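Table S5 (text form). Sequence records supplied for joint modeling of the two-component complex.
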Amino acid sequence: AQSVTQLGSHVSVSEGALVLLRCNYSSSVPPYLFWYVQYPNQGLQLLLKYTSAATLVKGINGFEAEFKKSETSFHLTKPSAHMSDAAEYFCAVSTSYGKLTFGQGTILTVHP
Amino acid sequence: EAGVTQFPSHSVIEKGQTVTLRCDPISGHDNLYWYRRVMGKEIKFLLHFVKESKQDESGMPNNRFLAERTGGTYSTLKVQPAELEDSGVYFCASSPLKTGADDTQYFGPGTRLTVL
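The corresponding structure-token record, covering 228 residues in total, follows.
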């Protein structure tokens, strides 16, 4: 069985500060990993995904994530937070048929 | 290109009533998924259609939930009779028909269901 743990249900940063959202996974097979973002009143939008091509994955809006097999982690980072980054972020792992298993979500607050 | 749409955006019903949620996937997407997020919990998989066939319905909570996808286009999710614990946000997602688990799923905005 696969599972995902996001450490920290709420993360608060100052505008311009580093954003670090943590995700650890458990999978019996090589995983496909995803980060999705949900802005208020919108659906989930794909930020980036890991498909084994490269361990450092770059996504939209300046976000990136690094796949570390030894640590079973796929943390999401952004060097400098913007007010527009305030949203809820979800880490997910995929099974062979595309069924996604999600973490609990992390709400990111960005303050001036 | 239109995205995944869901109707209604909100639904408030009494316990014991019936509600039907609808999802229109992106045109040409053969994979269609339903997920649910109960308040304070993670988003959970309900079921997966490939065209009109149910590929995986392991996440359906019980037999009060019935999903259909006639003709392989839009899908409906009916809850009958609704219970209090069915409250939550129901998401639909779609993706093209490919063979890999790395396919991107495109999500709709969700239907917020409240059962009183």
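Note: The mean pLDDT of chain A is 92.
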